[in-house]
Specification:
Cytochrome Bc1 Complex, Chain A, domain 1; 11 strands; five-stranded mixed β-sheet; six-stranded mixed β-sheet; 20% strand; 2 domains
């Protein structure tokens, strides 16, 4: 399958990037507009400021009211939303390809020309306050963010208040938002990505017309991944009232991996903690019946840092047993199961072959590589090809060696959330 003909990129003189991936066999188009700024750039006394942008984008532009925006989205978008992470804020919509012009015109307008009406801003602060309250009431969210805060101190991955702090959001004004918008929502800090049935030149012209030329650039902050910094806590216990279950987490930071190691860690995570064939499922749920859910994942951001995290939900009286069993499976349990390794290799090969068939599958690949990593088209295509080769070339001993390198018990942190 050729990616060169269907994957295209244009970069305007002022830095505006347009990336498209034509996908056959679909009548839909997925369009996303991303500003390369997020909660990591919140002022120290206004946590949640950049999260407000995604909310206010739907509350009106210079030429459209909130009601106008809602009507257009209801008419032309099959699905739409916006999201803020630590280094990016993204506005997106899925629609029928023949509606690309209408969808792109609206998203570009929401992105470029939010009105930040004071009355709407005050109402939306209360909406965000409800979102913050919901997050803090969510045990999994709270435990995970507590773990991240134990792993990182100054790095944004450890920041607890990415959604915001109500008392600090109260000080944000329309002028505050307008000033930040004019600094960050500019062509050199913007990436437009579309996948599906579309023509690259058509979208490029729509974007170039919507975005006025602007030679302004921004200076991005860099952060240490804090990989070698000593941890202050290795065990955290959170007690909450009126709970009938407990959550057990183990986590640790990992260094940036090579291309080969990126493939190896996929094998390790799947052998250890993903699905009914994993060690976690077999040893913790199936053989002992100690949990309902148990999982593992690696995450983070390529420009901030990476981590491994393992999670389980269990009964409060089983916390100690589950906690120790997960630790043993992660650190010392044998991975010498060639049959399981071969099953995982087949599954990863199959997933790698079919994930690009979906629009969001291609979008996620492009977002991870060309947006977050900043790769150009040639680098992205080379890495996609190499990923296939690395999966095929991975051996069981490679997976075992990577675990020995990454899993250092002294660098692990446990978080337990349980009833008072």
């Amino acid at each position: 399958m050729s990616h060169k003909k269907s994957l295209q990129e244009s970069v305007r003189n002022d830095g505006l990037r347009i990336i498209t991936k034509r996908v056959s066999g679909t009548k839909k188009v997925y369009l996303a507009v991303t500003a390369l700024v997020g909660s990591a750039y919140d002022p120290f006394n206004q946590h949640g400021l950049f999260h407000l942008f995604e909310h206010m984008a739907f509350k009106g532009t210079a030429t459209k009211s909130a009601r106008d925006i809602k009507k257009i989205l209801e008419q032309y978008a099959l699905i739409n939303n916006a999201s803020t992470n630590r280094l990016e804020t993204t506005y997106w919509a899925l629609g029928v390809s023949t509606r690309l012009s209408e969808i792109s015109n609206l998203l570009f307008d929401m992105y470029l020309n939010p009105s930040f009406l004071p009355d709407e801003l005050e109402k939306e602060k209360e909406v965000v306050g409800n979102e913050i309250a919901r997050n803090f009431d969510n045990d999994s969210w709270f435990a995970t963010n507590t773990l991240m805060g134990a792993l990182w101190k100054d790095n944004p991955l450890g920041h607890f208040y990415t959604t915001g702090i109500p008392e600090e959001l109260a000080t944000v004004t329309s002028d505050t938002l307008s000033g930040a918008h004019s600094r960050w929502y500019i062509p050199s800090n913007t990436v437009v990505v579309a996948t599906g049935k579309l023509d690259h030149e058509e979208l490029k012209q729509l974007a170039f017309k919507a975005f006025p030329l602007n030679s302004q650039i921004v200076s991005h902050t860099t952060w240490s991944d804090e990989y070698n910094e000593k941890l202050e806590e290795h065990e955290i216990i959170i007690e909450r009232p009126s709970r009938n279950k407990a959550i057990v987490l183990w986590g640790l930071k990992i260094p940036r991996l090579s291309e080969k190691e990126e493939a190896h860690i996929e094998f390790y995570i799947r052998m250890l903690a993903v699905g009914m064939g994993s060690l976690f499922w077999r040893e913790v749920r199936e053989n002992r019946g100690l949990v309902y859910t148990i999982s593992g994942a690696h995450g983070g951001h390529p420009k901030l840092g990476k981590y491994l995290m393992f999670a389980a939900e269990t009964l409060p009286e089983r916390v100690g047993e589950v906690k120790e069993l997960i630790h043993e499976l992660v650190t010392t349990h044998s991975l010498q199961d060639a049959a399981q390794f071969n099953r995982v290799k087949m599954r990863l090969t199959d997933l790698q072959s079919v994930s690009p068939e979906s629009l969001d599958g291609w979008y996620n690949l492009i977002d991870a590589g060309m947006v977050k990593e900043g790769w150009d088209r040639e680098t992205f295509e080379k890495n996609i090809r190499n990923e296939r080769k690395q999966i095929k070339a991975t051996r069981l001993e490679d997976v075992i060696a990577l675990r020995e390198k990454l899993i250092v018990p002294e660098q692990m942190v446990s978080v337990v959330l349980k009833p008072e």
